[in-house]
Amino acid sequence: MAVQNLGRDEVKRKIEAGGVTVVEALPESYYKEAHLPGALLLPHDEVDERAPGVLPDKQAEVIVYCASSTCANSGIAARRLDELGYAHVYTYEDGKEDWQAAGLPTESGV
């Protein structure tokens, strides 16, 4: 199944509605600095090792994002999740930069 990209408004709506897991595909230092509300850390180069613990339900909706539209990490992580059998994977290609530019809240720390 192809991974579908979502825009900011759709990502925001899904977060507010609940029932979606949001993951940041950047290294931990960037995640600690700022991440989308409720987002979990899943670096793009650690998907195989961390996904079973971070995302135990392969039927859950998952939104993967990284820094911005020029960052490839979210696409890499999302494609790998799809290959691992996750059924409902989306990307937010515009990522954290777009979210913050819109003045939307982020969280920091772990």
TrEMBL record:
Residues 16-108 form the Rhodanese domain. Signal peptide: none annotated. InterPro entries: GlpE_sulfurtransferase, Rhodanese-like_dom, Rhodanese-like_dom_sf, Thiosulphate_STrfase_CS. It comes from the Bacteria. It holds the Pfam family Rhodanese. This is Sulfurtransferase. It comes from Streptomyces xanthochromogenes. The lineage of its organism: Bacteria, Bacillati, Actinomycetota, Actinomycetes, Kitasatosporales.
